[in-house]
Predict the structure of Integral membrane protein.
Amino acid sequence: MESVFLFIHLISAVGLGFYLLLPFVSGQANNLPVLRSMNRIGTYLLIVQFLTGGYLVSKYDLSVAWMVVSIVLLLAIFALTGIMGKKMKEGNTSSVQTLSAVNAVLLVVTVYIMSHPDVI
Ligand code: HEM
């Protein structure tokens, strides 16, 4: 069961790779409608990460600090995707570019923490 959850968690993380590309494609106003649809799917993937990650933490021996940092990062990314969705709707490319750059950095930090469970 654990390997099934980890597999779903990993496939969902691959889908979230969209957020690493977003800063490079969000400068053009024409792109915003399709990016907005993809951003909505991204929020669903974050919920998948929360649910599968919640199951996985119960199976691994991780520190409380690791869990807290992971959840805070996930919530920060979730909040940014929500704000970006609003900015995409308004057609505000410069805000989307700035927010998506911050979001990409947070995603990289999250994957680093995920792949180094004993870092904290
Ligand atoms: C943006 C959100 C997230 C992304 C992109 C993400 C990504 C990943 C990746 C790539 C791995 C595999 C690491 C490896 O095996 O080397 C992993 C493992 C794991 N994730 Fe997440 N994750 C996210 C959120 C969460 C959350 C919120 C939790 C729970 C608090 C969580 C719990 C875990 C656990 C327990 C593992 C397995 C232990 C480990 O290898 O560190 N994840 N995650």
Q: What stands out?
A: Residues 12 and 48 are 7 Å apart (CA to CA). The chain has a mean pLDDT of 97. The helical segments are 2-15, 18-25, 32-59, 64-90, 93-115. Residues 9-10, 13, 16, 46, 49-50, 53-54, 56-57, 60, 62, 67, 70-71, 74, 77, 110-111, 114-115, 117 surround protoporphyrin IX containing FE (CB under 6 Å).
